[in-house]
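Researcher: Go.
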Amino acid sequence: MPRSLRSPSRHALLAGVALVALAGGAFVAAPAAAAPPGQAGPSIRDPQALLEALAPELLDETLPPLGAAERAEVQRQTGAAPFELNLPAEATGPLQLAPAETEGAGLPVSITVRGARGVAHEAQGLTWFEGADDSSASYLQPVRDGVRLLTALADATAGEESSYDFGLPEGSYPTLLPTGDTLLSDAAHHYIGTLAAPWARDASGRSLPTSYSWSGSTLTQHVELDGAAFPVLLDPLWLYSYDFSTSSTGWSVNHPKASENAVSRLLHGCFNCYFPIFGAPRSYPVDGQILPLSVTPFTWTATAAPVKAQTANGGALQFLALDGHFDGAGSLITFSWYNDPSGYLHLYVHAMVRKDNGPAINLINSRTAGANWLLYWKRVADSATGSGGGGGV
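Model: Structure:
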């Protein structure tokens, strides 16, 4: 069990840039409105009905994990191992996850849901367990490159905490990003995986105050239930994205500990000198700007990837895919720059791709994305110095 996994501390972060193209991973925004006030909520032992009432938009994200034979076939076709998720048959068994084999990938982990009991039940792609008593239940929702760990609370006796035991390397620690996501890294600052920002909602559609805390390698989600209409639904979402630094890539760069301010000066001086996608502007993108980006995902023929720049929570700059984008309109990806506790510069890429092209093509896209974002990190880390000026001009 990691000794140094502690409560997340916020590291200063450069507002990142984002591009929706050739990226795997998942992103979930806060769920949309649920059942109207006063309407009786469904039983927590009916996961499908409960999600339909409280968070219907999450249902479309269910993606059954590949079996062993399917994974072997994808690896045969692509030459790389795809994302792996093994769900437990009994509550005492852990979930086992391993990321797809790409540049910037995370590390395998195991997760055990505290308080779950009995054998697994199946419901429309969800695996669920009874809680420690009749007032709670745990749902495991497989999603693209991750798993959502939902807890359903029938009434206030269920309590305000849900905990999960993680199997992590010794010395692992969390980094809280301004977007609300938490990155887990090992003692050598190698990215392990991501916890999306926590959320909780009651039966009236009201968002409830919620937060994470760590004790050793145990994650606890806290929720304030004062005045809540039951049932209540909450979750951590574990997913794999991309993270690049000298510790994870093995690449030698000129400025491995470049500051976030140096990166900001560099990209504001000449954005497309470093951003590796055709059609990017020379000037740093501004909110509402439409960018006619194009990529070459499968052939040397350019494929349209139009996006709109916008600012996300925490000030991160995102690119939102528009109609005609090959990843599907509404896809979103965010690049964030940060320095780890030893000062090394990281590029973290968090993506949500709307279109599912099947496991083999998804993996090819993810590997191409990883290569692009590795190039982006290397260009910046080679050129961003701590001195004044706006390099790249």
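Model: Residues 35-239 form one domain.
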